[in-house]
Amino acid sequence: MATRVYTLSQVTQHKSKKDCWLVINGRVLNVTKFLEEHPGGEEVLIEAAGKDASKDFEVIGHSKAAQKLLLKYQVGVLEGYTVQDGDSKEVGYKEAKSNEMSAFLIKDDSTPNYAAVLEFFVPFLVAGSYFCYRCLTRTAQITI
Predict the structure, then answer these.
(1) CA pair distance 114, 2, nearest whole angstrom
(2) Residues 26 and 89 in one domain
């Protein structure tokens, strides 16, 4: 097992298709050779490259075999973490963590605020314009 210690800024330098590193549970992984084999597609790994992908890895619910692959692609440990040997995913943080609660929020709404306003008012504007046109052309026909 590699015992080299990397900082997150060092890992962030490896975020291309030809050089893809990421962090899972304190383990620094070089997954460049695994990109084509990844069942979820290489795009998922490239999107997480250079970052701590621990939460994403846990949310998906990978199999034991996938968790054992972490050892195969591990090139080191993230600074501040100690990784235990074996197939366990146990990772301890050296510094004492505070007893604060934390939350992971996913916000899917990426549309800007003005787009919502436009989506609401544009149909009314089009309908109003149509009715005004119909009223104006109808009175023109009657007066002739």
Answers:
(1) 51
(2) yes
Main-chain dihedrals φ then ψ at residue 58, nearest 5 degrees: -75, -40
Q: What is the pLDDT of residue 62?
A: 81
Same domain, 45 and 88: yes
**Comparing 27-31, 62-66, 127-131, which segment has the lowest mean pLDDT?**
62-66
CB 50 within 8 A of CB 69: no
Report which of 46, 58, 38 is spatially closest to residue 22, judged by C-alpha positions: 46
Same domain, 33 and 85: yes
Backbone CA torsion sign across 98, 11, 75, 87: positive
Say what the pLDDT of residue 103 is. 55
pTM of the shown model = 0.55
Provide the 10 A C-beta neighbour count for residue 126.
Answer: 10
